[in-house]
Amino acid sequence: MEISLDVLKKKNCKLTKNEATNIAYMISPTTVYSIGSAMPSADSRCRCTPPAYVSSKKQKRIVSFPGLCPHQEVSPGNKRCGRKQRDTEPGDYRNPCCARNTNAVMEHIRTTKVEQVKLLDRFSPSNKSAFGTLYLTATHLLFIDSQQREIWILHHHIATVEKLPLTTTGCPLVIQCKNFRLVHFIVPKERDCHDVYNSLLQLSKPVRYGDLYAFSYNPKQKESEGVLGWQHIDLKEEYQRMGVPNSYWQLSDVNRDYKVCDTYPRELYVPITASKPIIVGSSKFRSKGRFPVLSYYHQAKKAAICRCSQPLSGFSARCLEDEHMLQSISKANPVCRLMYVMDTRPKLNAMANRAAGKGYENADNYSNIKFQFVGIENIHVMRSSLQKLLEVCGTKALTANDFYNGLENSGWLRHIKAVLDASVCLAKAINDENASVLVHCSDGWDRTSQVCSLGSLLLDSFYRTIKGFMVLIEKEWIAFGHKFSDRCGQLDSDSKEIAPVFTQFLECVWQLMEQFPRAFEFNEDFLLQIHEHVYSCQFGNFLGNCQKEREELRLKEKTHSLWAHLLGEKSKYRNPVFDKNSLRTLPFLEPNTIHFSFKFWRNMYHQFDLNMHPRQSVPSLLLKTIDESKCLEEELKQLKIYYSGVGGISPQLVTDVYQNTGHMAVASWEMKNMASPM
């Protein structure tokens, strides 16, 4: 049998079946080609379809290559793929480098297709289920049911895979995702279930960065656009917007080679009176070398938010350079010499760290300093709390009382409250007292990032815009070394390092949006999309644990930026009730942090549970209404133009008929009847 494969748009290129298979696998190992089907046009073709197809005189036969893309498995002559919305686009694998990466991944796939798989709906009152086909590709797990509805799950989104004991109906396979999707399959044959289970275990836990999706994701855009995408956020411009450098703060190059602190960025802002020996000496006295640096400068108050890690003080150690460093920060504020040192840990935890030679600052050694503990728990407590919350969310047929009891017992909202309480405390110190604040936790990259970023957002309305929020994340989380790779479980590493620190930050922002719905330019979908891609590994922004790692991985050359993607769809993420005047009239937000003011974020933790009663937020509903109104106005405009030349029909008559019918097709039929001669 011969197959005609139009790889490079050359006609009548005859290849043997093996040659066609090898070439197709090299170009796109995630594609299925249908025999006899015409090649889709560039506009209608799915993104993961390369410019190639297979044809044969034999009809209604499917050729499946390894790592198939099932929505290309269509009947002959069907030119459009009938794919529906998925959680993440599968991407394009025409890059030869991508093919090499994908070939390595394909070795883990033991079976690409399993039929007659049952998908259980955990919230259906009648134990509703759907039958369909399960596919494994190089990047996604895909389930297509008998109604052609699709569920796409990125391998990197998978947190856990569990194969339950065999039952009379088949072998259960439960998949828990990092974006809080939970799917429960019943696979007919235990051997197939075992193959899928083992494949997903390896595909969801890559061992090196080069196997992550971002290095093979190749959207349809020019190469120059990919480079420009990384230039949307410039932190030097952000510090200039804040008013630094100035007569109190300077840009230091002490860390230009990452020799002082390898988890800090190259460019750091420090007090102008802090010399290099003071900086180096302070770094040696701080955990991981993370010495005090500028995080945010309030130009009007002349006060600063600074961040660092815990001191290596033990029970009695001191460091003169570190004491001078804190004194320099205090002197950099000409309005108020009193400075707060905010330790975000519970005091008991900080005291316990003294036994390991760490701990907290001794008040006797620092002048003009006021110390405060705010009691945010560590990553292990947060991870356990989230697990309890998800257990409550996954329990079927709970009464409202049982649900709220479970929510309370998980402690999740108490932790959200603790983070916001600390952020409000920081913001009020600057806004009300003009005092500078130094924030730290243990290593200065988890709780410190939460409090510094939220405090800045409360103080500065710029961070409540779409662009400003991206800048805030880039500055406080990415540049200052929040360990995204470890905390999000990007690679197969220590599971005890995984923690929902960034998820908590996004939820705190959502809680603020609920209290101040007109103060934010972005909507809830914006937060959900960022959360989605923090775990998807589709873009390079959140890969790695620090800037040094990202430079070594050459992410700006080899991957794409999420910010360019989000800015390209800015209209989708705009809050329709946003008040632009709030940027001026509400420079400082002071939220209510009483316990009952915190809500359960349903659209985060139940966003994939479609059979639950939908509860669309008011801003989202308003945005949808606005979009529909624009579509109707455009239809009306086209209708007026179409019938403008018909005698005796005025534009006003068209408008009246259209408003009465409410639909262009009906209005058009009415107008034809009116225009046709008797």
TrEMBL record:
<dbReference type="InterPro" id="IPR030564">
    <property type="entry name" value="Myotubularin"/>
</dbReference>
<feature type="binding site">
    <location>
        <begin position="378"/>
        <end position="379"/>
    </location>
    <ligand>
        <name>substrate</name>
    </ligand>
</feature>
<dbReference type="InterPro" id="IPR029021">
    <property type="entry name" value="Prot-tyrosine_phosphatase-like"/>
</dbReference>
<dbReference type="InterPro" id="IPR048994">
    <property type="entry name" value="PH-GRAM_MTMR6-9"/>
</dbReference>
<feature type="binding site">
    <location>
        <begin position="441"/>
        <end position="447"/>
    </location>
    <ligand>
        <name>substrate</name>
    </ligand>
</feature>
<dbReference type="GO" id="GO:0006629">
    <property type="term" value="P:lipid metabolic process"/>
</dbReference>
<dbReference type="GO" id="GO:0016787">
    <property type="term" value="F:hydrolase activity"/>
</dbReference>
<dbReference type="InterPro" id="IPR016130">
    <property type="entry name" value="Tyr_Pase_AS"/>
</dbReference>
<dbReference type="Pfam" id="PF21098">
    <property type="entry name" value="PH-GRAM_MTMR6-like"/>
</dbReference>
<keyword id="KW-0443">Lipid metabolism</keyword>
<dbReference type="Pfam" id="PF06602">
    <property type="entry name" value="Myotub-related"/>
</dbReference>
<keyword id="KW-0378">Hydrolase</keyword>
<protein>
    <submittedName>
        <fullName>Myotubularin-related protein 6</fullName>
    </submittedName>
</protein>
<comment type="similarity">
    <text>Belongs to the protein-tyrosine phosphatase family. Non-receptor class myotubularin subfamily.</text>
</comment>
<feature type="domain" description="Myotubularin phosphatase">
    <location>
        <begin position="229"/>
        <end position="605"/>
    </location>
</feature>
<dbReference type="InterPro" id="IPR003595">
    <property type="entry name" value="Tyr_Pase_cat"/>
</dbReference>
<feature type="active site" description="Phosphocysteine intermediate">
    <location>
        <position position="441"/>
    </location>
</feature>
<dbReference type="InterPro" id="IPR011993">
    <property type="entry name" value="PH-like_dom_sf"/>
</dbReference>
<dbReference type="InterPro" id="IPR010569">
    <property type="entry name" value="Myotubularin-like_Pase_dom"/>
</dbReference>
<dbReference type="InterPro" id="IPR035998">
    <property type="entry name" value="MTMR6_PH-GRAM"/>
</dbReference>
